[in-house]
Amino acid sequence: MKAEATQAPFAEATALRLVPALLADPSVRIGGGILVVIALLGLFAPLLTPVDPSYLDPTTRNELPGAASTVDLADGKTADVTHWFGTDQLGRDLFARVLYGARISLLVGLAVTLIVVATGLFIGLVAGYFRALDGLIMRMMDGLMAIPSILLALALVALWGAGLWTVIIAVAIPEVPRVVRLVRSIVLSVRGEPYVEAAVAMGTPTPLIMTRHILPSTIAPLIVQGTYVCASAILVEAILSFLGVGIPTDIPTWGNIMAEGRLLFRVYPHAILFPGVFLAVTILAVNMMGDGMRDALDPKLQRRL
Amino acid sequence: MSPVLTIEQLSVRLPAGADRTYAVENVSVDVAPGEVVCLVGESGSGKSVTAQAVMGLLPRGQLQPTDGLIKLKGEDLLRAPARRLRALRGTAMAMVYQEPMTALNPVLPCGYQIDEVLRTHTGLGTDDRAERVRDMLDQVGLAEPERMAESYPHELSGGQRQRIMIAMALVLEPALLIADEPTTALDVTTQVQILALLRELQAAHGTGVLFITHDFGVVAEIADRVVVMRAGRVVEAGTVRDILDRPQHAYTQALIRAVPSLIPRPARAGSGRTVLEVASLAKSYRQGGWLDRRRVVDAVKDASFEIAAGEVLGLVGESGSGKSTTARCIARLEDPSAGRIRLRGAEIGSLSRRALRPHRRHVQIVFQDPYRSLNPRRRVAASLIEGPMNFGVSRAVALERARELLAFVGVDPVSIERYPHQFSGGQRQRICIARALIMEPALLIADEPVSALDVSVQAQVLELLDQVRTRLDLAVLFITHDLRVAAQICDRVLVMRRGEVVESGPTAAVFAAPEDSYTRTLVAAAPGRNWDFAHA
Description:
The complex is a heterodimer of chains A (305) and B (536).
Chain A: H1 2-5, H2 18-23, H3 26-43, H4 45-48, E1 67-72, E2 78-83, H5 94-129, H6 131-146, H7 149-160, H8 164-190, H9 194-201, H10 206-243, H11 254-261, H12 270-297
Antiparallel strand pairs in A: 1-2
Helix pairs in contact in A: 3-5, 3-12, 5-6, 5-8, 5-10, 5-12, 6-8, 7-8, 8-10, 9-10, 10-11, 10-12, 11-12
Chain B: E1 5-13, E2 22-31, E3 36-40, H1 47-55, E4 64-72, E5 75-76, H2 82-91, E6 93-96, H3 100-103, H4 110-121, H5 126-139, H6 145-150, H7 158-170, E7 176-180, H8 188-205, E8 208-213, H9 216-222, E9 225-230, E10 233-239, H10 240-245, H11 250-258, E11 274-286, E12 296-308, E13 312-316, H12 323-330, E14 338-343, E15 346-347, H13 353-360, E16 363-366, H14 380-390, H15 395-409, H16 425-437, E17 443-447, H17 455-472, E18 475-480, H18 483-489, E19 492-497, E20 500-506, H19 507-512, H20 517-525, H21 529-535
Parallel strand pairs in B: 3-8, 3-9, 6-7, 7-8, 13-18, 13-19, 16-17, 17-18
Antiparallel strand pairs in B: 1-2, 1-4, 4-5, 9-10, 11-12, 11-14, 14-15, 19-20
């Protein structure tokens, strides 16, 4: 009887087989749905508004949501548009800026997640499997964890100059240790499993043991951890841009739109409200997806993450 | 005398979609005061569910008693409200579990946990309760009751923890004690003491005991009456002598026949060619942290032996004796601290991992837990051909060989494309044996290969291992804590204790006339030995 209990709930879990289980969870469907909508809004922003997000118009500064005006388009024509979200203090259309800003937020979220998961997986596998390297790697990770992420980002921006990739790298580095710790803990428990030892006894080369017998166990928790990394990355990017050390304001991001609206917040709250709502909803959606995936993939994980 | 516990026609329904409709069907059991009734059966027979139904501990919403009657001293338990059941647990009925480490709260002192029973169910004052706790700890044979009361579970041995559990169960002198495999997690020498203690306390207090076990040796030691269960039904019930000596039902007969006898079979001569020579093998671990490397634990000290082809050498000992560590050093899953390991004439004890690789195939290992020995994400075929393909055998040839070996170990070769979870424990262990054999090893290490299996399956797997040895002329290093198993398969045995080999010799000689005092204790502790020798 005790033997039955040790069976993994998702014995055949590989990345593709996980999909149906994931989609069965309502939070995954709702969170994922919201994210798809926001991604489509960002992707098709040029179709949803003809206005260039960085087009300045000194005559229509600080318009309230719903105000109408005539703007010059990129191709030299003019058009009458309604500023659904109003305009900012330089007369730029906030609706266009928020939609284009979604691109940056989601791009940063996705890129950071991919970088963090890939490097964290590699370092975690190495640290967990090769005991000799474990101490060294983990102390380095502890060191990284000791640096406040915003401070590290500030330093990197000062070093390399502000820009999309600087922000992505700066946000990614402090997230890596947490993924490394997760992967390492899984590797440590799986490498003692008899099936891994049997593979050692059969002379299976070490890289094969790691990819074939150990790595698959890390996939489900990594997907879940990935969503948390993604949410955190979107948030940190917004904070950096808000502080003015992130992405320059000629590329709109939710963070820098809010930063620019900050001065006149009491008089014109809409410049902060709209990007703020988009940011909050996106983070909520990503976290909902993460929670749903955690429940769907491994009931035992519920209290661990 | 009217029975303490009456179970009449009890049926417990399983949730829809399970492999059968009822977990327990029409089960009737009586327990009289001062009587020990053993519920015996293999895994999935419904013996634990029956006990949980009595205690009112069935998982809510999943298992529902649908029919029947459970009466504790005439009181209907199935219809009793939750409040009443709570009051009865501890005072009128109590339970002892298999794993005392998890049944005790790790963050509270043991005395406090026993005291809790008294606080909940009696109005006794602090001093009276402390007195009762001390008295009870004394009764369960724990020296220094005061110190024990202040100890935390992790500070005690398995046997001491189980004594604490028993003290907790019996402190209010319940009329009924349910013991669910209470000695299964313990070493045999400890098991003997716990069984004796249960017997003694039960006689002194007149407690009725419902004792759940899978082990016929234990049954022979403790039971007054026996109820044999299979797949949720009672197969046969009777006095212990009737069931053990004159079983009527075919299933009971088969079950008892499957119990390995303690009487060793005669040693067979190996083919004489020495496969493995181990000389002065030692393994020590450093404990303590990065800065404190002083504490050294010797897991194996100065072990020397050899095994010839066609011979089964048993490594026998209790937990912590170093038998598994010895095997893992030979398989080079761990690096020995000292000593020589010569495999087919080549020294492998000190080889680097890289230099070791060509030798890997000659030593294969079968592990205890068949549920964790196969990668759950890979098909059986992939697991089987992994080894040969590591050594350059083509996929097609390896698959062909894998099918042959599956047939040889008694698993349908058609099922080679299935995943491990689609097989039973016994089948998985056969697959693991096939996976070891496909490497064509000279030495097969079997580390408790049948300990996780039911007796009937155990007998079949032992039979298979014996066939393997004869047909392939393998040297087998067989690790077990179970003397019955050792008696049936080993030609020679090595008895280990605390990392040292205390005795070795032909199985029959060691079992019949053990020279070392520890070996004598071990042989004397084997449950049900009188029953065996009565049959011989």
